Amino acid sequence: MSNERSAIAPTPVSLLSNGTVLAALGVLSFSLSFPGTVFALDGFGSWSAAGVRGVIAALIAGVALLATRAPRPVRADWPALTVVAVGCALGFPLLTTFALQTSSSAHSAVVIGALPMATAMISAARTRRREPKAFWAAAGLGGATIITFTLLQNNGAPTIADLCLFGALLLCAAGYAEGGRLSAHLPGWQVIAWGVVIAAPVNLAVTAWALSHEPVHLTAKAVAGMAYIAAVSQFGGFVLWYRGMGLIGVAKASQIQLAQPLLTLLWSVLLLGEHVGPVVPMTAVIVLACIVVTQRAKR
């Protein structure tokens, strides 16, 4: 009887081994980053918000590295970790915070929607992997759809905020690609932990300067927003995201992020009361279809 029971007993599947689920949870975490930043800007200046979030994230990461006695990365990994630091812990937070001073969370989310395509292209060039034509066609359509949506919102001309966002997505795409590559042989949480620690001196300098030049009002909204973008957007979400990319590959994981602008649009309406035009449902259908195609494409 025991043999029969063991034969028919279901084998438990750990979520920690499901790359698609982990990547999707990372995207869900990131989708609240822009609303969280808008909340933080309720009491912090743009430089203060970017610097403080980096310092808090570095403290969390440093404690985690010390508590687990994580070994120092080998010399060959430091250049890639520096790219992660510059792209994900410095450039993206600072440029998106600047953009959100004049751009809505919903609009910014759509511009950053080109991030999956940029990540896939950088990863393909870096690793020299060849993806199938269906993958690139769907990824290109998804990226083009989001970019077209963005330009229509501004009568065909990008704003200064858009330029900041495009710069942010290029830097972040490079950080994603290098971080995902490292996650194939390093624990994903250590990749982002070392990244934010490397960026800590710059964020400390930014924070010290900003707090002496920008007024800070610690409202409940500002504190909640800062707590989220520091603990989740800057660290916790990346733990899930890099682990997922390490398991299923950078290119495929990056296409799951096509859903992020749509989720952020939802949070922008529910949490910030922003208005979203009728073109959003059409964009949603096209983008979600692209996600399905890219996830089913086989190498």
Could you give a quick summary of the protein structure above?
Helix content is 76%, strand content 0%.
Quick tags:
299 residues; mainly alpha; 14 helices; 76% helix; 0% strand; globular
How would you explain this protein's 3D organization?
This protein has 299 residues and is an all-alpha fold. The chain has one domain (19-296). It has 14 helices and no strands. It has helices at 2-8, 19-30, 33-40, 46-67, 78-99, 105-111, 115-127, 133-153, 160-182, 188-213, 220-248, 250-256, 260-272, 279-296. The longest helix is centred in the C-terminal third of the chain and has 29 residues, at 220-248. The radius of gyration is 19 Å and the shape is globular. The N and C termini lie far apart (44 Å). Mean pLDDT is 84; it is low at 4-13.
Q: Strand percentage, roughly? A: under 5%
Q: How far from one another are the termini?
A: 44 Å
Unreliable stretches covering 5 or more consecutive residues: 4-13
Q: How many beta strands in the DSSP annotation? A: 0
What is the oligomeric state here? Answer: single chain
**Rough outline:** globular
Major sheet size, sense and barrel closure? none
Q: Name the average pLDDT.
A: 84
**What number of domains?**
1
Helical segment count:
14
Radius of gyration of CA atoms, rounded to a whole number:
19 Å
**What structural class do the secondary elements suggest?**
mainly alpha
Helix content: over 70%
